[in-house]
Amino acid sequence: xxxxxxxxxxxxxxxxxxxxxxxxxxxxxxxxxxxxxxxxxxxxxxxxxxxxxxxxxxxxxxxxxxxxxxxxxxxxxxxxxxxxxxxxxxxxxxxxxxxxxxxxxxxxxxxxxxxxxxxxxxxxxxxxxxxxxxxxxxxxxxxx
Length: 144
Hints:
alpha+beta, 3 strands, rod-shaped
């Protein structure tokens, strides 16, 4: 408020000084009009502040990334099960963990549970997933 009052007083004082210093002539009326308009605008400034539109910052994300990650994880797990059935002719239960990190969806880990206890199949699935670019891979046989 103190800043506003100092600004208003300064503009009014400047207007009075300019009005006294300019000679009577053709530009006198125009300059006086401009100075009066400046004074009026400065005095109306607090009233215009009432009508300002302010933006509200939303702290919460617009999307439910936990839900999206779950749906994406479920879909990736299902697709991986189909791929391993096709490649290895082996029924597997796959669990692909998808995380939302720095604006991107990334695979966090992959767990594959196979019906076979054959070490060659387990190692083959691991190598295949590694070749596909998966990280944090765990392949193990189901325990009954």
